[in-house]
Amino acid sequence: MGGVRAIIRAVAVGMGVLVMLAACSFRPLYGTSSEGTSARIGSTSIAISQIGEERVGQQLRNGLISRLTPRGQPEFPAYTLNVTISDSLTDLLVQEDSTVLRRNYKLTASYKLIEVATGDPVYTSSVSRTASLNRLESEYANVIAQRDAEERAAEAVADVMVQRLGIALARLASPEARRKAAIAEAAKIASTPVDTTRPPEPEEIPLSPPVPQETEADGDAPRFPAPVAVQPGE
What is the mean pLDDT of residues 112-131? Predict the structure, then answer.
């Protein structure tokens, strides 16, 4: 009986959680709603610009492409993603003889999602992630360890960016966001000055009498011979 009661209690708790989520208007990000569909379609319509000139920037861009547009950059993108990055390397564990044993690599990305049709930024944010690495005696090992930390930090930043962009696209597709956008567009149109000046009226030109055709001068041969009467029987 105790086992049956535990099962019933678990089912009841699960139903209660579902009711609470429904009451809170919880919706899966990539569900079948219009917001979820827009999040899926919108994420594949993002063109990702070049990110700096360093190796870590290329790693971050590759991570974003593999998550957002794994089939390649869209031919006609609806959005453009501009990203700027900054990184730092700080000592985390230092011995008494100033020997560094461990470091932290921090990568920060600031990004803007720009709508291609209007050129306006529709979402702006930034994210930072840290990856630790050991400081070894071999310089070659230190280079490899730092590259590994850069890759891990870039992957973590890409994960957060993709999640936030999906949420932003879903919000942009919500009825409330569309209503606000329509109101803003109407206000923009209403504030545009209208040219109320009337074009000048066309001038009234009096009609001229028809020009008489030139007549043949006296003494000139007629253009056609005069008709000749023909008597019957001739």
Answer: 92
Tokens for 54, please give them: 């360093």
Q: Is the pTM of this model over 0.70?
A: no
Give me the half-sphere count of Cα atoms (radius 13 Å) on the Cβ side of residue 196: 2
User: How many domains would you assign to the chain?
Assistant: 1
Sheet with 46-48, side-by-side order of all strands: 46-48, 79-94, 100-115, 121-134
Q: What is the β-pairing status of strands 79-94 and 46-48?
A: parallel
- The DSSP output letter for 29 is T
d(CA 176, CA 136): 55
CATH number (domain holding residue 91)? 3.30.160.150
One DSSP character per residue, 8-23 reads: HHHHHHHHHHHHHHHH
- Indicate the residue type of 164: R
